[in-house]
Amino acid sequence: MLRTATSDIPRAILLILVQILVLNQLDLFNGYVQPFLYIIILLLLPFETPAWAQLLIGLAIGLIMDMFTFTPGMHTSACIFLCFARPGILRVLSPRDGYEMGMNPTISHMGIAWYFLYAGSLTLIHHFWLFTIEVLRWDLVPSVLLRTLLSAFATLALIFLVQFLFFRSAKK
Length: 172
Known about the structure:
Elements: H1 2-21, H2 40-43, H3 51-69, H4 74-92, H5 107-110, H6 112-135, H7 141-166
């Protein structure tokens, strides 16, 4: 557990810095495409992480993002909602024999199809919540849905790129 934490903390710091210094500065298609790569920190939490710990990690990451993006509570609530939905998504996508201890939800461990369903559903949940809270108007629902889909596609593309570049260990 300590070995996992010592490798995860620097990775989380690096991903947050990339998000703040690079990705948040992009203005793609008049703001309709906003990749949020930092959510990979929450997606890569080990399977056996307790729900309360997931929520606390989501709270911490969301607060950090809100602090640097000047969006009080928006990223925090979206991250907490993602962490709240994660155990349910993992339960639905659970293999017949369950998850192995010590395994992380990565493409190399679980396969592309499983990871696409897992990361795709949680990314859509996060983005829909974030963009809905941002506008809070019923007349902008089509815009929220379009932003959610386009941003989720961009985020998933970056997540898969990161997975293929940095998590290429052999499947167990």
